[in-house]
Amino acid sequence: MRYVCEKTTGANRTCDFRAISKVILQQPLERAQVQKLLETGKTDLLQRFISKKGRPFKAFLVLKDGGLGFEFEPRVAKAKKGGAKGEPKAPEPKVDFTGQEPIGKCPKCQGAVFETASGYVCEKSQADKRPCKFKISKVILEQPIERAQAAKLLADNKTDLLDKFISKAGRPFPAFLVMDDMGKVTFEFPPREGEETKSAV
Q1: What is the pTM of this model?
Q2: Helices (H), 78-130
Q3: Are residue 64 and residue 114 in the same domain, yes or no?
């Protein structure tokens, strides 16, 4: 079924307006919307169009050169993380280590390492220029890293055997955390038949 002009039919037709289908790309076109289209040249925003690739989309129907076309909503510009467009990103608040006891020395710059809510970081991570990026996360592959183990890692370059790591496949496994002179933390697995293997964290 379609909406057609009376003058497009019969032997003496005088109008070449193209008929409007009652369903366009699976979107039903109600009488009120056709009326609005003819009066204003544009429907309300219609929500249930389905593209030839099977993807839903919404659009306005508009009259174009005697036929129909789509008009899409203007895209809303995404706000930058720094806030409104053109505004600089607000600096993260500095961590105050006053009164805290360090757990060890940073292997990168020899600064003091302190405990924070998310991990163990170098005091120089708060510097305005060239901050130190050393950090030990408090949770690695679902294994909590306690303060005592982080301190042991800094002092001895190796933790005790930790047994609550969860692999990407969802399997639990035990391992030591070991650290090289540059502060890179890797796994060391318990020896199997006299062999030790390491894997990057």
Answers
A1: 0.51
A2: none
A3: no
For residue 15, the enclosing domain spans 2-71
pLDDT for 189 beyond 70:
yes
Domain contains 179 = yes
Same domain, 60 and 111: no
**Residues 59, 127: one domain?**
no
CA dihedral 150→152→158→162, nearest 10 degrees, is -60
Q: Are residues 110 and 56 in the same domain?
A: no
Two tokens at 10? 């019969």
Upper half-sphere CA count for residue 21 (Cβ side, 13 Å): 8
Q: What is the pLDDT of residue 37?
A: 83
Task: In whole angstroms, give the CA distance from residue 96 to residue 198.
Answer: 35
**Where is average pLDDT lowest: 3-17, 58-72, 113-127?**
3-17
> How far is CA 141 from each of CA 5, 136, 163, 179, rounded to the nearest angstrom?
68, 13, 11, 17
H-type helices in the chain, by residue range? Answer: 31-40, 147-156
E strands of 51-103, at which residues? Answer: 56-64, 67-71
Go through the chain and tell me how many residues it has.
Answer: 201
β-sheet bridge partners, residue 135: 121
Looking at the structure of the chain, the number of domains it has is 2
Distances (CA, A) of 71 to 28, 29, 34, 60, 186: 17, 15, 15, 5, 54
